[in-house]
Design brief:
144 residues; alpha+beta; Hypothetical upf0131 protein ytfp; five-stranded antiparallel sheet; two-stranded antiparallel ribbon; 4 helices; 23% helix; GGCT-like_sf; Gamma-glutamylcyclotransferase; AIG2-like_dom
């Protein structure tokens, strides 16, 4: 079954100006808009961030809402899944692709977002290093 054609909320290396944006999204995006993912915490990872649902619901992560071109949607989805090492239903995923509501200039919209999966999520909540709410502001530009 084909997943819903929702936009993607990106918060790390896929943001405009970061190392994976041009590599994965360049020329295949209809729009990019500043957005916030409420109820989420951000953690440092090994050169990239992880977002997890905040058990208290108070956190928020800043990023962008990326709308792929309709004709490129399936290809973009496959490339993002590959980049995030996400395979639907696989137990060893680093990330899970889930639908969340994000806030942007025109209100709330549903979007795909990659959140830390299973054991990684638990480890981050137990002892991970928080990265504030905006990974780009905290880390500066991602290394290229």
């Amino acid at each position: 079954m084909r997943p819903a054609c929702l936009p993607f909320f990106v918060y790390g290396t896929l943001r405009p100006g970061e190392r994976n944006h041009d590599r994965v999204l360049r020329g295949r995006v209809a729009s990019v808009e500043a957005a916030v993912l409420p109820g989420t915490l951000l953690f440092d990872g090994p050169g990239y961030p992880y977002a997890v649902d905040d058990p208290r619901g108070a956190g928020r992560v800043h990023g962008e809402l990326v709308e792929p071109l309709p004709e490129a949607y399936d290809e973009v989805l496959a490339d993002l899944d590959r980049l995030e090492e996400y395979v639907p239903g696989a137990p060893g995923n680093l990330y899970e692709r889930v639908v969340r509501e994000v806030r942007c200039g025109d209100g709330a919209r549903r979007a795909w977002v990659y959140l830390a999966a299973g054991p990684i999520r638990q480890e981050l909540l137990a002892s991970g290093r928080r990265a504030g709410g905006d990974w780009r502001s905290r880390r500066g530009k991602c290394p290229r």
